[in-house]
Protein backbone atom coordinates (compact mmCIF):
# COMPACT_ATOMS: atom_id res chain seq x y z
CA UNK A 1 0.00 0.00 0.00
CA UNK A 2 2.89 2.38 0.76
CA UNK A 3 4.41 1.80 -2.68
CA UNK A 4 1.01 2.31 -4.32
CA UNK A 5 0.54 5.60 -2.40
CA UNK A 6 3.93 6.95 -3.49
CA UNK A 7 3.28 5.84 -7.08
CA UNK A 8 -0.04 7.68 -7.06
CA UNK A 9 1.63 10.83 -5.69
CA UNK A 10 4.22 10.65 -8.48
CA UNK A 11 1.47 10.32 -11.10
CA UNK A 12 -0.07 13.51 -9.70
CA UNK A 13 3.23 15.35 -10.17
CA UNK A 14 4.67 15.16 -6.67
CA UNK A 15 8.23 14.09 -5.94
CA UNK A 16 9.07 11.03 -3.89
CA UNK A 17 10.29 13.28 -1.09
CA UNK A 18 6.91 15.01 -0.96
CA UNK A 19 5.16 11.67 -0.66
CA UNK A 20 7.58 10.67 2.12
CA UNK A 21 6.78 13.91 3.96
CA UNK A 22 3.07 13.09 3.88
CA UNK A 23 3.79 9.58 5.17
CA UNK A 24 5.97 10.93 7.99
CA UNK A 25 3.10 13.13 9.11
CA UNK A 26 1.06 9.92 9.40
CA UNK A 27 3.81 8.26 11.43
CA UNK A 28 5.18 6.13 8.58
CA UNK A 29 8.92 6.34 8.00
CA UNK A 30 10.06 5.20 4.55
CA UNK A 31 13.52 5.95 3.14
CA UNK A 32 13.80 6.83 -0.54
CA UNK A 33 16.21 3.96 -1.15
CA UNK A 34 13.72 1.57 0.47
CA UNK A 35 11.04 2.69 -1.95
CA UNK A 36 13.36 2.28 -4.94
CA UNK A 37 14.40 -1.18 -3.67
CA UNK A 38 10.75 -2.21 -3.48
CA UNK A 39 10.20 -0.99 -7.00
CA UNK A 40 13.22 -2.79 -8.41
CA UNK A 41 12.33 -5.70 -10.69
CA UNK A 42 13.63 -8.95 -9.14
CA UNK A 43 16.57 -10.53 -10.95
CA UNK A 44 15.94 -13.71 -12.92
CA UNK A 45 18.04 -15.70 -10.44
CA UNK A 46 16.06 -14.31 -7.51
CA UNK A 47 12.77 -15.31 -9.11
CA UNK A 48 14.07 -18.77 -10.01
CA UNK A 49 15.45 -19.27 -6.52
CA UNK A 50 12.07 -18.32 -5.11
CA UNK A 51 10.38 -20.92 -7.31
CA UNK A 52 12.81 -23.63 -6.20
CA UNK A 53 12.45 -22.64 -2.54
CA UNK A 54 8.69 -22.79 -2.86
CA UNK A 55 8.96 -26.29 -4.39
CA UNK A 56 11.25 -27.35 -1.53
CA UNK A 57 8.93 -25.98 1.15
CA UNK A 58 6.04 -27.91 -0.40
CA UNK A 59 8.02 -31.11 0.26
CA UNK A 60 8.37 -30.43 4.00
CA UNK A 61 6.10 -33.30 5.07
CA UNK A 62 6.70 -35.53 2.05
CA UNK A 63 9.13 -38.47 1.86
CA UNK A 64 11.08 -36.55 -0.78
CA UNK A 65 12.14 -34.08 1.91
CA UNK A 66 14.68 -36.71 3.02
CA UNK A 67 16.41 -36.68 -0.36
CA UNK A 68 20.01 -35.63 -0.63
CA UNK A 69 21.16 -33.11 -3.20
CA UNK A 70 21.57 -35.58 -6.08
CA UNK A 71 18.11 -37.13 -5.72
CA UNK A 72 16.53 -33.75 -5.06
CA UNK A 73 17.97 -32.38 -8.31
CA UNK A 74 16.46 -35.33 -10.21
CA UNK A 75 13.11 -34.86 -8.46
CA UNK A 76 12.98 -31.13 -9.21
CA UNK A 77 13.85 -31.75 -12.85
CA UNK A 78 10.91 -34.13 -13.11
CA UNK A 79 8.79 -31.28 -11.75
CA UNK A 80 10.09 -28.92 -14.44
CA UNK A 81 12.74 -27.13 -12.35
CA UNK A 82 16.05 -27.77 -14.11
CA UNK A 83 18.75 -26.29 -11.89
CA UNK A 84 22.41 -27.09 -11.24
CA UNK A 85 23.45 -29.29 -8.31
CA UNK A 86 25.23 -26.39 -6.60
CA UNK A 87 22.12 -24.19 -6.80
CA UNK A 88 19.84 -26.87 -5.38
CA UNK A 89 22.36 -27.60 -2.63
CA UNK A 90 22.52 -23.91 -1.67
CA UNK A 91 18.74 -23.58 -1.56
CA UNK A 92 18.35 -26.83 0.39
CA UNK A 93 20.69 -25.47 3.05
CA UNK A 94 18.70 -22.23 3.08
CA UNK A 95 15.51 -24.25 3.58
CA UNK A 96 17.11 -26.36 6.31
CA UNK A 97 16.92 -29.58 4.28
CA UNK A 98 20.03 -31.72 4.65
CA UNK A 99 18.72 -35.10 3.52
CA UNK A 100 19.60 -38.47 5.00
CA UNK A 101 22.92 -40.03 4.11
CA UNK A 102 23.28 -43.80 4.13
CA UNK A 103 26.61 -44.96 5.37
CA UNK A 104 28.28 -47.18 2.83
CA UNK A 105 28.97 -50.63 4.18
CA UNK A 106 31.50 -53.17 3.02
CA UNK A 107 29.94 -56.55 2.37
CA UNK A 108 32.11 -59.37 3.61
CA UNK A 109 31.94 -62.85 2.08
CA UNK A 110 34.58 -64.46 4.29
CA UNK A 111 34.98 -64.69 8.04
CA UNK A 112 38.21 -64.01 9.93
CA UNK A 113 40.31 -66.78 11.39
CA UNK A 114 40.73 -70.36 10.28
CA UNK A 115 37.37 -71.55 11.62
CA UNK A 116 35.99 -75.00 10.88
CA UNK A 117 36.88 -75.37 7.22
CA UNK A 118 36.31 -78.49 5.18
CA UNK A 119 39.38 -79.86 3.42
CA UNK A 120 40.11 -78.87 -0.18
CA UNK A 121 39.42 -82.18 -1.92
CA UNK A 122 40.47 -80.76 -5.30
CA UNK A 123 43.81 -79.47 -4.06
CA UNK A 124 43.24 -76.45 -6.35
CA UNK A 125 43.07 -78.71 -9.41
CA UNK A 126 39.98 -77.38 -11.18
CA UNK A 127 39.74 -79.93 -13.98
CA UNK A 128 37.32 -82.76 -14.70
CA UNK A 129 37.12 -85.68 -17.14
CA UNK A 130 33.32 -85.54 -17.54
CA UNK A 131 30.20 -83.73 -16.40
CA UNK A 132 28.90 -84.29 -12.88
CA UNK A 133 32.40 -84.99 -11.59
CA UNK A 134 33.40 -81.58 -10.21
CA UNK A 135 31.06 -78.76 -9.28
CA UNK A 136 32.40 -75.47 -7.99
CA UNK A 137 30.08 -73.25 -5.96
CA UNK A 138 30.46 -69.61 -5.06
CA UNK A 139 28.34 -66.52 -4.48
CA UNK A 140 28.52 -62.84 -5.23
CA UNK A 141 26.50 -59.74 -4.45
CA UNK A 142 25.31 -56.54 -6.11
CA UNK A 143 23.90 -53.26 -4.84
CA UNK A 144 20.41 -52.34 -6.04
CA UNK A 145 18.12 -49.42 -5.38
CA UNK A 146 16.45 -51.29 -2.52
CA UNK A 147 19.55 -52.88 -0.97
CA UNK A 148 21.96 -55.78 -1.52
CA UNK A 149 21.10 -58.87 -3.56
CA UNK A 150 23.13 -62.05 -3.13
CA UNK A 151 23.47 -64.66 -5.87
CA UNK A 152 24.85 -68.17 -5.37
CA UNK A 153 25.75 -70.33 -8.35
CA UNK A 154 27.21 -73.73 -9.28
CA UNK A 155 29.58 -74.29 -12.20
CA UNK A 156 30.20 -77.69 -13.77
CA UNK A 157 33.98 -77.64 -14.24
CA UNK A 158 33.89 -79.94 -17.28
CA UNK A 159 31.35 -77.95 -19.32
CA UNK A 160 32.27 -74.59 -17.77
CA UNK A 161 28.57 -73.80 -17.53
CA UNK A 162 26.53 -72.43 -14.66
CA UNK A 163 24.20 -75.33 -13.96
CA UNK A 164 22.33 -73.80 -11.04
CA UNK A 165 21.86 -70.51 -9.25
CA UNK A 166 19.76 -68.82 -6.60
CA UNK A 167 19.25 -65.16 -5.58
CA UNK A 168 17.91 -63.65 -2.37
CA UNK A 169 18.23 -60.54 -0.23
CA UNK A 170 19.88 -62.16 2.80
CA UNK A 171 23.07 -64.11 3.35
CA UNK A 172 21.71 -67.14 5.18
CA UNK A 173 23.26 -70.59 4.75
CA UNK A 174 20.30 -71.54 2.54
CA UNK A 175 21.71 -69.18 -0.08
CA UNK A 176 24.36 -71.74 -1.03
CA UNK A 177 22.28 -74.82 -0.27
CA UNK A 178 19.27 -74.14 -2.48
CA UNK A 179 21.03 -74.12 -5.92
CA UNK A 180 21.91 -77.81 -5.55
CA UNK A 181 18.36 -79.11 -5.49
CA UNK A 182 17.12 -77.93 -8.91
CA UNK A 183 20.41 -79.06 -10.46
CA UNK A 184 20.05 -82.59 -9.09
CA UNK A 185 16.41 -82.69 -10.21
CA UNK A 186 17.27 -81.43 -13.70
CA UNK A 187 20.08 -83.99 -14.08
CA UNK A 188 17.74 -86.82 -13.14
CA UNK A 189 15.03 -85.52 -15.48
CA UNK A 190 17.42 -85.40 -18.44
CA UNK A 191 18.83 -88.84 -17.62
CA UNK A 192 22.20 -87.48 -16.58
CA UNK A 193 21.97 -88.40 -12.91
CA UNK A 194 24.70 -87.64 -10.42
CA UNK A 195 26.30 -90.89 -9.28
CA UNK A 196 26.99 -91.07 -5.57
CA UNK A 197 30.72 -91.07 -4.90
CA UNK A 198 31.69 -89.60 -8.31
CA UNK A 199 30.87 -85.94 -7.64
CA UNK A 200 33.03 -83.52 -5.71
CA UNK A 201 31.13 -80.38 -4.77
CA UNK A 202 33.70 -77.70 -3.97
CA UNK A 203 33.09 -74.23 -2.57
CA UNK A 204 35.32 -71.40 -1.44
CA UNK A 205 35.97 -70.39 2.17
CA UNK A 206 33.12 -67.90 2.19
CA UNK A 207 31.20 -67.26 5.37
CA UNK A 208 28.07 -69.06 4.13
CA UNK A 209 29.80 -72.21 2.94
CA UNK A 210 32.39 -72.29 5.70
CA UNK A 211 30.95 -75.18 7.68
CA UNK A 212 31.92 -77.75 5.10
CA UNK A 213 28.36 -78.86 4.41
CA UNK A 214 28.59 -78.41 0.67
CA UNK A 215 32.25 -79.11 -0.05
UniProtKB/TrEMBL annotation:
GO terms for biological process: DNA integration. InterPro entries: HTH-like_dom, Integrase_cat-core, RNaseH-like_sf, RNaseH_sf, Transposase_IS3/IS150/IS904. Residues 129-175 form the Integrase catalytic domain. It holds the Pfam family HTH_21. Residues 51-104 form the HTH-like domain. GO terms for molecular function: nucleic acid binding. Residues 198-215 have a biased composition (Basic and acidic residues). Involved in the transposition of the insertion sequence. This is Uncharacterized protein. The lineage of its organism: Bacteria, Bacillati, Actinomycetota, Actinomycetes, Mycobacteriales.
Amino acid sequence: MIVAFIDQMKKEGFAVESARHVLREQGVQVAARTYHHWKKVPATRTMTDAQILNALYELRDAPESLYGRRKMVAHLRRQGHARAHCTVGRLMRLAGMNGIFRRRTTVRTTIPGSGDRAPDLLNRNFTAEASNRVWVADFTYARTGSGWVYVAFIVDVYSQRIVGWHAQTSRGVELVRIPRYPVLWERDRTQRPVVRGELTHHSDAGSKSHRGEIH
